[in-house]
Protein backbone atom coordinates (compact mmCIF):
# COMPACT_ATOMS: atom_id res chain seq x y z
CA UNK A 1 0.00 0.00 0.00
CA UNK A 2 1.48 3.28 -1.01
CA UNK A 3 -1.19 5.80 -0.03
CA UNK A 4 -2.73 6.27 3.36
CA UNK A 5 -6.47 6.84 2.91
CA UNK A 6 -8.61 8.41 5.68
CA UNK A 7 -10.66 5.20 6.00
CA UNK A 8 -7.62 3.10 7.04
CA UNK A 9 -7.50 1.56 10.47
CA UNK A 10 -4.70 2.62 12.76
CA UNK A 11 -2.36 -0.11 13.98
CA UNK A 12 -3.87 0.37 17.44
CA UNK A 13 -7.34 -0.39 16.04
CA UNK A 14 -6.02 -3.28 13.94
CA UNK A 15 -4.46 -4.95 17.00
CA UNK A 16 -7.97 -5.34 18.47
CA UNK A 17 -9.45 -7.40 15.65
CA UNK A 18 -7.12 -9.85 13.83
CA UNK A 19 -8.23 -12.78 16.00
CA UNK A 20 -11.84 -12.23 14.86
CA UNK A 21 -11.09 -13.32 11.29
CA UNK A 22 -11.48 -17.02 10.49
CA UNK A 23 -8.49 -19.16 9.65
CA UNK A 24 -7.51 -19.55 6.02
CA UNK A 25 -9.07 -22.37 4.07
CA UNK A 26 -6.87 -25.47 3.75
CA UNK A 27 -4.66 -25.63 0.68
CA UNK A 28 -2.95 -22.82 -1.14
CA UNK A 29 -0.41 -20.42 0.26
CA UNK A 30 -0.47 -19.90 4.04
CA UNK A 31 -2.08 -16.65 5.13
CA UNK A 32 -0.73 -14.39 7.86
CA UNK A 33 -2.78 -12.00 9.97
CA UNK A 34 -0.81 -9.01 8.74
CA UNK A 35 -1.73 -9.72 5.12
CA UNK A 36 -5.38 -9.24 6.11
CA UNK A 37 -4.71 -5.61 7.11
CA UNK A 38 -4.69 -4.34 3.49
CA UNK A 39 -7.83 -6.34 2.70
CA UNK A 40 -9.72 -4.85 5.65
CA UNK A 41 -8.53 -1.37 4.72
CA UNK A 42 -9.68 -1.88 1.13
CA UNK A 43 -13.13 -2.96 2.38
CA UNK A 44 -13.31 0.14 4.56
CA UNK A 45 -12.27 2.28 1.60
CA UNK A 46 -15.21 0.99 -0.47
CA UNK A 47 -17.67 1.40 2.39
CA UNK A 48 -16.51 4.89 3.41
CA UNK A 49 -16.11 6.25 -0.11
CA UNK A 50 -19.34 4.63 -1.30
CA UNK A 51 -17.33 3.32 -4.18
CA UNK A 52 -17.87 0.23 -6.30
CA UNK A 53 -15.69 -2.82 -5.80
CA UNK A 54 -14.24 -2.55 -9.30
CA UNK A 55 -13.31 1.10 -8.69
CA UNK A 56 -10.77 0.26 -5.96
CA UNK A 57 -7.52 2.16 -6.50
CA UNK A 58 -4.76 0.01 -7.98
CA UNK A 59 -2.53 0.47 -4.94
CA UNK A 60 -5.02 -1.55 -2.86
CA UNK A 61 -5.65 -5.30 -2.97
CA UNK A 62 -7.41 -6.61 -6.11
CA UNK A 63 -11.15 -5.89 -6.05
CA UNK A 64 -12.13 -9.54 -6.52
CA UNK A 65 -10.06 -10.59 -3.50
CA UNK A 66 -11.46 -7.78 -1.37
CA UNK A 67 -15.05 -8.46 -2.40
CA UNK A 68 -14.63 -12.20 -1.84
CA UNK A 69 -13.48 -11.68 1.74
CA UNK A 70 -16.17 -9.08 2.42
CA UNK A 71 -18.90 -11.40 1.12
CA UNK A 72 -17.62 -14.37 3.13
CA UNK A 73 -17.26 -12.33 6.31
CA UNK A 74 -20.69 -10.80 5.90
CA UNK A 75 -22.28 -14.23 5.56
CA UNK A 76 -20.54 -15.77 8.59
CA UNK A 77 -21.09 -12.61 10.71
CA UNK A 78 -17.37 -11.91 11.10
CA UNK A 79 -17.93 -8.38 9.82
CA UNK A 80 -20.55 -7.76 12.52
CA UNK A 81 -18.09 -8.89 15.21
CA UNK A 82 -15.42 -6.55 13.80
CA UNK A 83 -17.91 -3.67 13.84
CA UNK A 84 -18.92 -4.39 17.44
CA UNK A 85 -15.30 -4.60 18.63
CA UNK A 86 -14.30 -1.34 16.96
CA UNK A 87 -17.50 0.33 18.19
CA UNK A 88 -16.60 -0.62 21.77
CA UNK A 89 -13.09 0.76 21.24
CA UNK A 90 -14.48 4.11 20.05
CA UNK A 91 -16.85 4.29 23.02
CA UNK A 92 -14.04 3.62 25.50
CA UNK A 93 -11.75 6.11 23.76
CA UNK A 94 -14.50 8.74 24.06
CA UNK A 95 -14.94 7.91 27.80
CA UNK A 96 -18.50 6.72 27.36
Shape by Cα distribution: globular
> In terms of structural class, how would the helical and strand content be classed?
mainly alpha
> Average pLDDT, to the nearest integer?
89
Termini separation: 34 Å
Radius of gyration: 14 Å
Q: Give the count of helical stretches.
A: 4
Strand portion, in percent? Answer: under 5%
Proportion of residues in helical segments: 40-55%
Number of strands: 0
Element order: H for helix, E for strand: HHHH
Which regions have little confidence, pLDDT < 50, spanning 5+ residues? none
Taking the sheet with the most strands, its summary is:
none
Tags for this entry?
96 residues, 49% helix
What does this structure look like?
This protein is mostly helical and 96 residues long. The protein has a domain at 34-96. 49% of the residues lie in helices and 0% in strands. It contains four helices and no strands. It has helices at 11-14, 36-49, 63-75, 78-93. Helix 2 packs across helix 3 (63-75). The model has no long low-confidence stretch (mean pLDDT 89).
Summarize the topology.
Blueprint: H1 11-14, H2 36-49, H3 63-75, H4 78-93
Helix pairs in contact: 2-3
Quick gist of this model?
By secondary structure, this protein is mostly helical. It contains four helices and no strands.
Amino acid sequence: MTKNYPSYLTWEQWELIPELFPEAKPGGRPRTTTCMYPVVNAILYVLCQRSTWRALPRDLAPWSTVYGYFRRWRKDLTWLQVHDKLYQWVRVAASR
